[in-house]
Amino acid sequence: MNEDVEPQTGYTSPPPGAPVRRFRFRLPDLPRVRQFAEDEARDAGMPEEAIGDFVIAVNEVATNAVTHGADRATLRTWTVNGDLVVEVHDEGTWKPGPMPGAIGGMGLWVARLLSSDLTLRVGSGGSTVIMRFHGKG
Length: 137
Description:
By secondary structure, this protein is an alpha+beta fold. The chain is built from 3 helices and 5 strands. The protein has helices at residues 30-43, 48-69, 107-114; strands spanning 21-25, 73-80, 83-90, 117-123, 126-133. The chain is globular, with a radius of gyration of 14 Å.
């Protein structure tokens, strides 16, 4: 899971014709983001024992987007070969991660551990995190 390597085709955008769910949110909407993530995981056929970790990963990235990025962010989901792909985008300015010894700031690290793949794209248009999770068990 190297942040500097662009993922394989299909990870960074939905396949043509794939249904995409979109959810725009702000900080007060994080409980709804978690519910949206849980519903998406179940709809994708994710095993029940994996849903909690999935929701944690999505929540960590979504929280980062609206606390460190911009006041508003967008979450999109789609499936690729049975896997669930989640994209969180904000239009904020990228800030480097935590310094050694920091108490917080581990959201991307946690999300990276819980997802099967994580890609981070930053630039003048904001920050985008794309995560892939195994779907059907």
